[in-house]
Amino acid sequence: xxxxxxxxxxxxxxxxxxxxxxxxxxxxxxxxxxxxxxxxxxxxxxxxxxxxxxxxxxxxxxxxxxxxxxxxxxxxxxxxxxxxxxxxxxxxxxxxxxxxxxxxxxxxxx
Length: 110
Description:
mainly beta; 6% helix
């Protein structure tokens, strides 16, 4: 399950299917992933997961991009470990330009 349309976050444009499959989503879309000083998480694949049905040791992370959004009755969560990636130690605080109402309406449940 991914998001429909284009997803804007912190001035960056992501494809609507962001998070629907394991991929290095940030590598080609985040301004934190260009130049010589790339963020640690740029090279790591991730996807959105169902936090109640994710059998991995590391607990999935609640999406800070869409803190009020839900899919199939649960808050949006993502995981690097599900995709064979490594959870970054580095964190970046950014401001989203998408409202929770828009994000909730953009969730495609299949």
